[in-house]
Structures are given as C-alpha cells and as structure tokens.
Amino acid sequence: MRLSRYFLPVxxxxxxxxxxxxxxxxLRAGMIKQASAGIYSWLPLGFKVLxxxxxxxxxxxxxxGHIPMLMPTLQSADLWRESGRYDGYGEEMLRMQDRHGxxxxxxxTAEEMFTDVFRSHVKSYKDLPLxxxxxxxxxxxxxxxxxxxxxxxxxxxxxxxxxxxxxxxALHAYNRHLVSYLRTYERMGLQAIPMRADSGPIxxxxxxxxxxxxxxxxxxxxxxxxITDLKFGDRxxxxxxxEQCQAVLEEFTSRYARTDETHDEAVFNALPEERRRVARGxxxxxxxxxxxxxxxxxxxxxQTPDGxxxxxxxGSHGIGVSRLLGAIIEASHDDKGIIWPEGVTPFHCGIxxxxxxxxxxxxxxxxxxxxxxALGLEPLYDxxxxxxxxxxxxxxxxxxxxxxxxxxxxxxNGVVELTCRRTGESEELPxxxxxxxxxxxxxxx
Length: 445
What we know:
By secondary structure, this protein is of the alpha+beta class. The chain folds into two domains: 7-338, Bira Bifunctional Protein, Domain 2 (BirA Bifunctional Protein, domain 2), CATH 3.30.930.10; 349-443, Anticodon-binding domain (Rossmann fold, 3-Layer(aba) Sandwich), CATH 3.40.50.800. It is 33% helix and 27% strand. It has 13 helices and 23 strands. Strands 3, 7, 8, 9, 10, 11, 12, 13 and 16 form a nine-stranded mixed β-sheet that branches.
C-alpha cells in the first residue's frame, strides 16, 4: 500500500478523553473514531489489525476441532425468559421492542442461542462431542464506558460452546480450549497467563481467565514468577488426546496465579518470597465449565446407549477480539507509539523515501515495494512529499516492526537502512539483502 493512497488520519495531539496508552495511540494512529460513548468506528488501520486477530482465532479454533457459525446480534427475549436470565442479567443488557411489541435484546452473550440450536438438531450421544463457536459483535451497556476498546459497550468477541455427554468429556473440552488459547495468544505476541477466576453472571464450577500483564490492567493479580518463563512454542498437540491436553493444563496452571477475586493469601505467602509477584492484568479471555445449567433449563438432552435421555454437559469459552487490540498496545509500546508484534502487524514493513522526487530514491523504493509484494508481504510505502522527520514520526506511531529507509546518500554506497522498531537498532544493507532479511523474519510466522 502507498501511503499517499491510503486513509490514515493520524493526529498530532492526544485527544483529551484518552486516559490510557492504547486509547491514546489508537486515536492518534487513525485506527478508531468514537461514534458515541463506548462505541467506535474501526478505520482502515484498526480494521486491518482486527481482522488479523480474528483470523488467528479462527485458525486455532479450527485446529482444535471446533466448528464456526454465526448467530444474530438481536435475540428474542423468549429464550432468555426460558433460561431464567432475562430479568436477572441486569441493566448491562440492552432491551428493546420491535414494531409488533415483541421483547428483543442486543446479545451480550449467546449461551441460550447456541443451546437452542443444539436442542433443535442433536438428539443422540453419537453426535457428541460437539463444539460450536462464533466471532460476533456483542453489546453490554456499561454504566461508565472508558479506556477506548478496553471497556467499550460494543465489542467483537469469540464465544464458543461445547456439548458433551458427561462431565469428564466436558472437562476435556475445557482443557482443549485452554491449550488452544495458549497457542492463540502466543501467535499474537502475547503472554496471557491463565488464572483461576470468579465465574461471574455466567456461572460455573471451573473457570480460568487469561490475563496480559500491564500497568493499566483493571484487575490486581498475584502469581508465581516462574509462570512467566513458560512458552507453548511450536509443540504439536493432538487435541483429541486427553493425556496431552491434561499435561499442558498441569504445566500452565500448577503454579500459583490468581485474580484478586480468588486470591488466597496463605497459599501465595507459602511461595518463596523472590517468586511472589503482584501486578495489574488485562483480561483477554475466559473459559468456563458450567455443567447442565443451561441444558436442563432449555431441554438440551441426548439419548444414551441404554435409551435414557440426559441433559448435556456444557462449557463456554470467550476471547475478546477487539479488546485484544488494546491489550497488545498496552503490553507493547514506547513513548513514540505502538510496537506491533510481527504476527499481528497491519503491514509487514514500512518503506520511507527520504527524498521524494529524486530519481534514484524513487526507483529504489519502487523496486523494494515490488520485491516485498512479490514475496507475499505487505509493505507500506511512505511516498508522500513530507519532511523526513514527519515520515519517521508516522512510522513510529503506527508501530510497524521493520522499516527500510532509502535516501540518495545511502544509495550512492549501494545500501539502504533496515531498522527494528522494538530495539531501534539499524543496519545498512544492499536493497536485495534487506528484502531477504525481512522475508526471513516473517517466514515462520
């Protein structure tokens, strides 16, 4: 993409309403624009990252054997009355009526809808196990929306629901989701720590939250420092294997990690003092097992081999996709702007022309742009008639991991400058070597 043809409305000044880093940088980098309190338009750069996150979530869910579908954002109140949650959910649920006076709501979550689909079409244990999921917009009418996409009213969320014949099978689904989430977050360049948590209004006996450590996190967290050394890495997991999923679960949850809601001071203090950590965390996902709570209320049953009809065991598993954008920025930035991990960057590499209109510089930039594009990479070429300082400031603000700088002086020596956004380190290379190095970096991502 050529920046002169792209829509990137960057701001030089920080809007007064932006209180945290991610909100400030998302507004300044032209990623979002507030439409109303807690509701945002996603501008091209922000939308591009959002879709990358969504694609990673889809890929890892499908890898784990889960099946995507899509539910409506508007739901009938009848299902929620049937489950007993319509009156009890609270004022966060946006309620309305259609022209015929029928009670409707804007979905804050989708347990009822998925359970209704299941009970309408699945009758036998032979069709189990089954996990269905969607990535869809949700609405929760926060009393005080703030912090940009971190606590908005409208948000993009992956929510999945497993249906199993027994508690044992459902707990395997729980473990399988925990493993798939570890893979998902690592691909995004995040270390999301699974922490035992409170189930909240969804309910359930087993639940873990995934939290990213950040100074602006809304939750106080207590954890064993050894957990931050754990990496999922490139290991291959058979998601049908109870033993393999259980082994990963034990590895990542055997060390102490709790939110303030479930913190046990005595257990925490039993850790060696040098390993005790207290910090802030941003929730980016949560998994639940809640047994037969919804299947009993809504009549979601299957026939067992002996002909008995039993309610299925269920769990739900969520990832805040739009919230992840803010979490990544909170965890990865400096005083100049965003620093995108390579796995989610909107463009793989920036190209800065220091002297637009110079024949040699223009030609070298065009050649770099063509070579990177031919390799399947997406460069962002700053071809504007703008001073060099302004071009560098824009690249630093939007946070592309790598930048190739082209100028007449370097070209006389046959080199361009390749710069790493995270470290600030630069090296001079012939143009073809710079392209090869960028391609090598992204080859394994």
